[in-house]
Amino acid sequence: MDWEDLENKVKDWLAIDDATTVPGSGNGKGEEDVIGISTITQCKYTENKNASILAKDMRRLKDAGKLMGKFPLFVNESSEGVVVSIPECDLIEDILEYIAIRNQLEYVYNELLECKEPAVVEKLYSMFEKVERKASGIISKVNKQIVKIKIKFDTKYQALTTYDMFEDTNERTIRPEGKET
User: Fold this and answer.
1) Residue 172: its pLDDT value, please?
2) Domain residue spans in the chain?
3) Which of 35, 46, 116, 165 is 20 to 30 Å from the Cα of 16, by its Cα?
4) Which of 38, 37, 34, 17 shows the shortest CA–CA distance to 26?
5) CATH topology for 3-85?
6) Which residues, other chains included, contact 50 with Cβ-Cβ below 8 Å and sequence gap of 6+?
7) What are 75's strand-pairing partners?
8) Across the chain, what does the average pLDDT equal?
9) Taken in order 149, 17, 95, 31, is the CA torsion positive or negative?
């Protein structure tokens, strides 16, 4: 593995965002290694066991994200693995909640596979119902945003394609013969 492999891995992870690697990104002052429609990612690779993010690097990445209107991500890889860092933001609670939900569902599923007692099944089902309610909350948030955007599409299209009968028609026009009316 090297820095180029890391950038390609991040690009693949962010394929849903049409992410691409930035050629020569490590040669200049730019903080972006992988850019998508809504994300900007700085990748740091080290062969050492320790990976860290310098405050100045995070600040520059956040500033670049704000300037470009993109969500900043920082991805470090060392000999011990990959770490994705997310700056504190409005989405942090939703992101962490999704991670917890996803892992709790996996836990319930795996425990259910091994379960041999009805009392444990009941306990797992109770846990599942709680996680399902949390998941429904996140799904509801996403659906509300989707509906809001669909309504905006409809109103924008209507506004752009509807003829206004009260539009000022007293504007001067020029006939094809070049005479003004």
Assistant:
1) 53
2) 3-85, 92-161
3) 46
4) 34
5) Trna Endonuclease; Chain: A, domain 1 (3.40.1350)
6) 78
7) 43, 84
8) 88
9) negative
The beta strands (E) that lie in the chain are given as: 20-21, 34-35, 39-45, 71-78, 81-85
Q: Three-state SS across 23-73?
A: CCHHHCCCCCCEECCCEEEEEEECCCCCCCCCHHHHHHHHHHHHHHCCEEE
- Largest pairwise CA distance in the chain: 93
In angstroms, rounded to a whole number, what is the distance separating the alpha carbons of residues 146 and 142?
A: 6
Q: Which of 39, 30, 34 is nearest to 68 (CA)?
A: 39
Q: What is the pLDDT of residues 80-107, one digit of tens each?
A: 899 999 988 888 999 999 999 999 999 9
Q: Which two tokens mark 131? A: 């996680």
- What pLDDT, on the 0 to 100 scale, is given for residue 6? 94
Task: Give, for 108, the enclosing helix (H) or strand (E).
Answer: helix 92-114
Question: Which residue is it, tokens 């062969």?
Answer: 47
**In a 3-state reduction of DSSP, which class is residue 162?**
coil
CB neighbour list of residue 120: distance below 8 Å, 6 or more residues apart: 111
